[in-house]
Amino acid sequence: MTNHARVLLVIARDPQARLRDIAAAIGITERAAQGIVSDLEDSGYLQRIRIGRRNNYSIDPRQHFRHPTEADVPVQVLIDMFTHRDLRDDEQPPGDQR
């Protein structure tokens, strides 16, 4: 599993995780975690929302993997495999009206 996937899973478990905590959870530097979070945000997998002095992350579980062999699979499948949270019901991207 890639570090990008690991970061996504840490955030799925704790949407208010600090970069320091994300880095420690998967064994990378804080700077590397910051870069990965930025990559995930730029690619539309998550949104970072500043609340006071903390960040709160919102994952878009409908985003699909980038690799061609998994391009038809939403990231929700990965989240379901490794966590007990279902983001489909409790974390919709802002402005999403179902």
Automatic annotation (TrEMBL):
Domain HTH marR-type: 3-50
InterPro entries hit by this protein: HTH_MarR-typ, WH-like_DNA-bd_sf, WH_DNA-bd_sf
GO MF term list: DNA-binding transcription factor activity
Annotated protein name in UniProt: HTH marR-type domain-containing protein
Organism: Nonomuraea cavernae
Lineage: Bacteria, Bacillati, Actinomycetota, Actinomycetes, Streptosporangiales
